[in-house]
Amino acid sequence: MVHAAHPRVKASRPKTLRITTALLAAATSATLLAASAPSPARPLGIGDRLFPHLGNPGYDVMSYDIAFTYRGDNKKPLDAVTVIDARTIAPLQRVNLDFAHGKVRSVAVNGSPARFESTGEDLVVTPSRPLDRGEQMRITVRHTSDPRPTKDRDGGWVPTADGLAMANQADAGHRVFPSNDHPADKAQFTFRITTPKGLTAVANGLPVATAHTGSTTTRAFRTRHPMATELAQVSIGRSTVVHRSGPHGLPVRDVVPTKDRKAMERWLKKTPGQIDWMEGKVGRYPFETYGLLIAQAQTGFELETQTLSLFERELFKRPEFPEWYVDSIMVHELAHQWFGDSVSPSSWSDLWLNEGHATWYEALFAEEKSKKPLQKRMREAYRQSDGWRTAGGPPAAPKGPAPGQKISIFRPVVYDGSALVLYALRQEIGQRDFDRLERAWVHTYRDGNATTADFVRLASATAARDLSGFFDAWLYGAKTPPMPGHPDWRKAAPAGK
Q1: What is the DSSP string of 287-355?
Q2: Which residues are paired to 116 by β-bridges?
Q3: 143-157, 178-192, 197-211: which has the minimum mean pLDDT?
Q4: What is the pLDDT of residues 460-484, one digit of tens each?
Q5: Measuring CA to CA, which residue among 353, 351, 331, 483 is closest to residue 411?
Q6: By C-alpha distance, which of 144, 170, 85, 90 is closest to 344?
Q7: Residue among 305, 348, 303 at smallest CA distance from 329
């Protein structure tokens, strides 16, 4: 995600078993409660430090099949059916799903009707019989999905001038469809979107079917790689899908308002070259397709939804944004396809791995292509870093979100403040080992989840020395350590002094 840390950054700036041991350990007592018969239904979570009630223990989702019916009116809920295929990893008498902002009409588990109730932001399902550990289960939820915003929640469906898009980061996927809404539980996705004729629907992955029935059209899309719920994307609108080829014949498809098709071409045609540049840095693009979704919407950010990054139309229209800046933001979201999408965080405290890397490649691209010195940007980040740590916590132990503002975890410390950690690491181990580490990271954890501790271990192995002390100071310290190789760099005086 890009919040405006530059001219536009928001006040602050998503294999078989993918749920980490640490999170499961934190959720063990909750799992046992879920499996005990008499306890009342209540919201659960997998123990994420920043979002304690996000995700649910006791099962691992393998796939989602989600059908939406949109009738052309953003003021009316969509009819929807979500089918979840999962495997239990603990005995369960109840199954908690994350779901809010929609009406549930019925739930079935393995074809049999199930009781259900809502509590907090959880949908609690009671199957007709208890589930043993290791069982396959198919949960079918018939529900509505409400695109209307609410005052006390943010994210989910984003109304556009001619339809809808999604912005589910960090924890708003369950405002759109029932799910295990935590990036630790990635899964395959199929979307089936029915719209009135004249509207175009596009989703993550590649198209697999189109059917016309009377006055409606249904389009189906499927991912070829697992995806976190926060990265789901469905676009509905009066759009044109523009196709071109990227490196190695990669299908590149962009979704743009039809009236802006010609005006946007100067930006869209840059994508294949940007992919080629990123591949030169970290290796082959990790997914089956890529492209930009340009939406007529006011979000305040761009978002790395998997294979189809969300961009505000105004980013490409505002004359005060120089071309190099817009290019670098495009590369930021593209870099996320490796860092955050393919290699996803195990917990939201690992967010620095997503945003720090995306900011790093954004800045490196600006240096190499537009002569915007990386060292100058990092020196300024160093000057401000202590202030960012005071306001938002250190990079790998960020402060929690402000009440009612879930995306407030996207602060400067996880953008330039975390890219600064990578700059310090490159200074510490040298560019050759740093480049080897980056490639090894996205290769080793491709299509999976990883932790900060995983990054520290891999960095130490790559450099052939223990870097835990270096990372402890840079990732968890209240103050920014001295910059290797730059003893003259100074930090700003604390506010009020």
Answers
A1: SS-B-EEEES---SSBB--TTSEEEEGGGGT-TTS-HHHHHHHHHHHHHHTTBTTTEEESSGGGHHHHH
A2: 125
A3: 143-157
A4: 999 999 999 999 999 999 999 999 9
A5: 351
A6: 170
A7: 303
Q: Could you give the 3-state DSSP secondary structure of residue 175?
A: helix
Which two structure tokens, joined as six digits, stand for 221? 């899309």
Q: Give residue 300's pLDDT.
A: 85
Q: What is the mean pLDDT of residues 232-256?
A: 98
Cα distance between residue 415 and residue 210, in whole Å: 40
For residue 94, what are the contacts with CB-CB under 8 A and spacing of at least 6?
A: 34, 35, 41, 124, 125, 126, 127
> What are the Cα distances from residue 457, in Å, to 341, 354, 452, 462, 483?
21, 17, 9, 9, 21
Determine whether 142 is exposed, middle or buried from the number of CB atoms within 10 Å of its CB (0-12, 13-18, 19+).
middle
User: Would you tell me how many other CB atoms lie within 10 Å of the CB of residue 435?
Assistant: 14
Q: Which residues, including other chains, have CB under 8 Å from residue 57's CB and lie 6 or more apart?
A: 24, 27, 28, 30, 31, 34, 44, 45, 46, 90, 96
**CB distance 124 to 94 below 8 Å:** yes
pLDDT digits (tens, 9 = 90+) for 429-440: 999 999 999 999
Q: Beta 234-237 vs 200-203: how paired, if at all?
A: antiparallel
Range scoring the smallest mean pLDDT among 153-162, 172-181, 276-285, 333-342: 153-162
Question: Can you tell me the distance from the alpha carbon of 437 to that of 464, in angstroms, rounded to the nearest whole number?
Answer: 11
- CA-CA distance, 327 to 285, in Å (whole number)? 18
The tokens for 378 are 């990092």
CA–CA separation, 357 and 374 (whole Å)? 14
Q: Where are the beta strands (DSSP E) in 89-162?
A: 95-98, 104-109, 112-113, 115-119, 122-126, 136-145, 156-160
188-196 and 59-69 beta bridge pairing: parallel
Is 6's pLDDT higher than 80? no
* Pair 2, 301: CB distance under 8 Å: yes
Helix/strand/coil (H, E, C) string of 453-494? HHHHHHHHHHHCCCCHHHHHHHHHCCCCCCCCCCCCCCCCCC
Q: How far apart are CA 300 and CA 296, in angstroms?
A: 12
Amino acid at residue number 454: D
Q: Is the peptide bond before 35 cis (omega within 30 degrees of 0)?
A: no
Q: What is the pLDDT of residue 85?
A: 98
